[in-house]
Amino acid sequence: MKSDLLVSICIPNYNYGHYLRNCLDSILAQTYPNIEVILRDNGSTDDSFEIMMEYYQKFKEKGIYFSIHKNKYNYGSDMNTQLCEFDMTGDLEYVLASDDSIEPTFIEKCVRVIEENPNVSMVMTHRNEIDENGNIYKTTPFYNQSCIIKGEDQAAVFMMAGIAIPGQRMCNSARLEPVKNFKRIWNVAGDWYNNFLCAMCGDIAYIADPLCNYRVHSGNETNESEKKLMGVWEHYQLINSFVDISNNFGMTKPAARYDAAVEKLGSMCLRYAFKMLENHLNDTALRYLQLAPVLKKEITKDDTYVQLLECVPLQSPELERKLKQIRGDNPLSRTVSYDPPEGFIPLKL
Q1: Ranges of H-type helices in the chain
Q2: How far apart are CA 13 and CA 265, in angstroms?
């Protein structure tokens, strides 16, 4: 594919040397040639920087600009990503986590969609999951077909779901000028927020093919933000900011879903509670269960809520048996694809 559009691939990294080669090899295998790579290490203590230097020559041999930076301190994920973006010079922006990878045609297909549909501000693709051993697992696409969706309609969907991590999306930088003053730093909600901003600037395209491989680490480890309930607190702030931003752009559909979005946060509390119980953080699970009715009053009548509450005083092995039963009876992750919003345009690749 020949194109004048330069794609800036930004790769923020922190201690993912174990996966970094897989990530960089997937970029070297891309069928679209006009790319630059900006890789910024966030003060890693593993061999990440040595691996970056190892790949410098490989990219040079292919004629690909490969920029390496190493932060003196760990500035946090969102800030490190923004530092990557400051160095980009491309027409299109793509952020890929250093533990993820992409299929060879990812860049080519996303660029083609943007070239053929100039009103598109962002392209999202479906993703599969990959474990730490490289085994790939199929997941369910969000939409049941490839399509182009009007920005306001997709913004209303983003009120309910973030859908795409950075590795699933490519942004048309030229169309994002109207939201440059809305940029902000989040602890856990930055990806979702940026997706919404893109919907303020144009149409959103969705490719139902799994072109991204999202790394899922084993062990079901929790992070500090989940232990502190930040996922819920920030998402509550997020949907309120969505209403304000969409009002600024004269869009009414996102605000119409505000109450439903708040109630969905109550359901999210159940998923977080389940994860806390899996990691034997029963007190934290109880906090999520106490918060859930604040967001969704009727959730106390939900069978899953009742079962999770019964799990709080349990310890192993009774706890594991009960959680296994809950998972079997009530899938806690999405298992169906949705129809695109009314008025969508089918996308042929």
Answers
A1: 17-28, 48-61, 77-86, 106-116, 151-158, 190-199, 224-227, 230-248, 253-256, 258-278, 282-295, 303-311, 318-329
A2: 30
> Along the chain (349 residues), what's the average pLDDT of each consecutive run of 10 residues?
86 94 98 96 93 94 94 84 88 95 97 96 96 89 98 98 94 95 86 96 98 78 80 94 97 98 96 93 97 97 95 95 84 82 94
Q: In this structure, what DSSP letter does residue 338 have?
A: B
> Which amino acid makes up residue 239?
I
pTM over 0.85: yes
What is d(CA 282, CA 278) in angstroms, rounded to the nearest whole number? Answer: 9
DSSP letters spanning 172-237: EGGG-GGGGGG----SS-HHHHHHHHHHTSSEEEEEEEEEEEEE--TT----HHHHTTHHHHHHHH
List the Cα angle 291/295/297 in 5-degree steps.
95
* Whether 92 contacts 172, CB under 8 Å: yes
Cβ count near 222 (within 10 Å):
15
Tokens describing residue 319: 């706890």
Q: Nearest 5°: phi and psi at 122?
A: -155, 140
